[in-house]
């Protein structure tokens, strides 16, 4: 049975740090790395059927753009350092989707970067890293 690590990645400096740390940890125990990118998309809107169709089309375009511009180049770079890597791109609430990806792939641990910024919305709604640490079913490593 192989060990799997899920790493949340959004292209930020904090997520770059999480990737570097997770690669080092994965190398030390020969783990499979699963790079997860979540595009946040609110399900709460009242749209006409035409708008819903257009929205679905835009979501598919965004998924392709994320794969080509962000995740594809990252995966190619990681494969040069660490052979065992997969990627997942999904829409949804970031915390819920990362936990779902973790469950779906049988992850043993989640790595996430921490920005260290404290905005009003973070104080009201909580951070992704904090919410994952509180709710995930597997250990969460928050990389500063």
Structure overview:
There is one protein chain. The chain has a five-stranded parallel beta sheet with strand order 3-2-1-4-5, sandwiched between helices. Helix 3 crosses helix 5. It is α/β, with parallel strands linked by helices. The radius of gyration is 16 Å and the shape is globular. The relative contact order is 0.22.
Category from helices, strands and their pairing: alpha/beta
Return the average pLDDT rounded to an integer: 87
The proportion of residues forming helix, as a percent range, comes to 40-55%
SSE pattern, N- to C-terminal: EHEHEHEHHE
Q: What is the makeup of the main sheet?
A: 5 strands, parallel
Number of helices: 5
CA radius of gyration? 16 Å
User: Which percent band covers the strand fraction?
Assistant: 15-25%
Beta strand count: 5
Q: How would the global form be characterised?
A: globular
How would you classify the quaternary structure?
A: single chain
List the uncertain runs: none
**Strand sequence of the main sheet, in spatial order?**
3-2-1-4-5
Gap between N and C termini, in Å?
30 Å
């Amino acid at each position: 049975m192989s060990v799997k690590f899920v790493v949340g990645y959004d292209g930020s400096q904090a997520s770059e740090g999480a990737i570097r740390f997770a690669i080092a940890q994965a190398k030390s125990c020969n783990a499979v790395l699963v790079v997860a990118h979540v595009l946040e998309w609110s399900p709460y809107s009242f749209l006409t059927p035409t708008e819903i169709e257009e929205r679905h089309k835009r979501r598919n375009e965004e998924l392709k753009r994320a794969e080509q511009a962000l995740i594809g180049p990252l995966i190619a770079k990681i494969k040069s350092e660490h052979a065992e890597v997969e990627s997942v791109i999904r829409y949804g609430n970031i915390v819920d989707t990362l936990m779902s990806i973790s469950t779906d792939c049988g992850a043993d641990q989640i790595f996430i970067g921490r920005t260290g910024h404290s905005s009003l919305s973070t104080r009201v709604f909580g951070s992704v890293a904090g919410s994952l640490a509180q709710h995930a079913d597997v250990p969460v490593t928050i990389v500063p």
